[in-house]
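Hello, quick one for you while I still have it in my head. I'm working through a protein record and want to make sense of it properly. Would you mind checking whether the tokens look sensible for this chain? I owe you a coffee for this, so here goes:
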Amino acid sequence: SIAILLYLAQKFKTPDHWYPSDLQKRARVDEYLSWQHINIRGKGSKLFLTKVLVPLLTGQPLPPEKLEGVTEELNVVLKQFEEMFLKDKPFIAGSEISLADLVALVELMQPVCAGYDLFEERPKLAAWRRRVEEAVGKPLFQEAHEGILNIKNL
């Protein structure tokens, strides 16, 4: 949960960029973490559930028109994410990665693992993803997403 992440960042005195002490940067992180619950998480999880879990549990594929509607909802919040949070910065809170970037990318991986490459036609989003992966380390990123990357093997 977000509360646990913030607690851990403060308790273990992680490097400042994760949860900045600068109030403006911290407010930016907090703003994203509050916004993402019903936006990125809500719409990304809905696409994942609709495209992967519901067909897996029911044995029936979803009607294409229902999937289109769910995909369009996600596209709307992705546009908002790019315009409101990334703008012209490398990361959400500025020039360094933060918990906001980490949470955002983890949530965006659900639709990707469901077969929707939301980075494909969004160069700004794709460049941000590369920066986040590089900051975390590609091997660690792959390890953290191993389970969900293999979801289609079910």
